[in-house]
Amino acid sequence: MRAVVVHGPGDLRIDERARPVPGAGEVLVAMEWGGICGSDVAYWKHGASGTAALSHPLVLGHEVAGRIAGLGAGVGGLTEGQPVTVHPAEPVGDERLPDRIAGRTNLHRRIRYFGSAAFDPHTDGGFSEYRVVRAAQIRPLPEGVTTEHGALAEPLAVALHAVHRAGDLRGRTVLVNGAGPIGALVVAAAKHRGAAAVIASDISETSLAVARAMGADRTVDVSAGAELPEDIEVSFDASGAPAALGPVLRATARGGTLVQVGNLPGSAVPAVLGDLVTREITWIGSYRFVEEIDDALIAMRDGLDVSPVISHRFDLDRADEALAVAAARGSSKVMLRLGGATPQE
């Protein structure tokens, strides 16, 4: 089978690997679609994502969906040919979380994640024609949700988790700074959870157009000198840009909440944070998700349309071109066709 494998910075190959066989408690998935994430781009460009650095080749991809092609011993409740997506996280060990964070499995100290070099050996991702997955990580797609859209359940889950961290949004006005794929999905998630109005801001008019298509009531192009609105009760920063923190904090109302969903750099950076104190703003981190992938599938089943966030589609053998497009301005979510599916199939 073919797999999209990064061997080092700038060294991406389509490798031939043996088709895997599911063991007890495992499922073989014939992959159909994968969405390219910023971490995939980082491994390709730099050989590392955050503090996780390549020490040997890695199959990329954690936003994936396909159809069951085989069942290992002891697996019940699933059938061959069934369309599925994957919860890409697997906590390592039997650590018991403290009571204060009980159930927040995304906060385990050690988590294996599809397409991650955080461990050695690395955890291969799903950008391959086939992938063996633990049955516990399989999520069947609801009727009417395609495998292409099912591959976006993972980033939509990230957005829904961020919205969940913000609390009840019903009837409230929300600001989303950064209208890349995650920001655009936060826009959709906030509207889905009852926000009265969502304002999206970005430096790219192309990204703002996607945000409008995902439900933003108003957009602000800060590259043109426009200022962010004032007195916003709940703000989300999906840009991860330290320079944006000062303006977003200033836009957040006194006593308001800022949810940080965009990954900030792991090194020291300058940022203007004074309003965090003087305006008594609650600044909340949001990391991946717990079980919101199930909520994402329900939301899509109930009509949340993720298609506007898709900007490009490439076949697996053009993965290097797909990553280059994903890394460039002017793109949103870039999809890889991993198997025999077609858009909206």
From TrEMBL:
Listed SMART domains: PKS_ER (SM00829)
Highest taxon listed in the record's lineage: Bacteria
UniProt keyword annotations, A-Z: Metal-binding, Oxidoreductase, Zinc
GO MF term list: oxidoreductase activity; zinc ion binding
Acetylation listed as a keyword: no
Residue span, Enoyl reductase (ER) domain: 8-336
InterPro entries: ADH-like_C, ADH-like_N, ADH_Zn_CS, ER, GroES-like_sf, NAD(P)-bd_dom_sf
CDD domains listed in its UniProt record: idonate-5-DH
Cofactor requirement: Zn(2+)
Family statement drawn from the similarity comment of this UniProt entry: Belongs to the zinc-containing alcohol dehydrogenase family.
PANTHER family per the UniProt record, alphabetical: SORBITOL DEHYDROGENASE (PTHR43161:SF9)
This protein's name: Theronine dehydrogenase Zn-dependent dehydrogenase
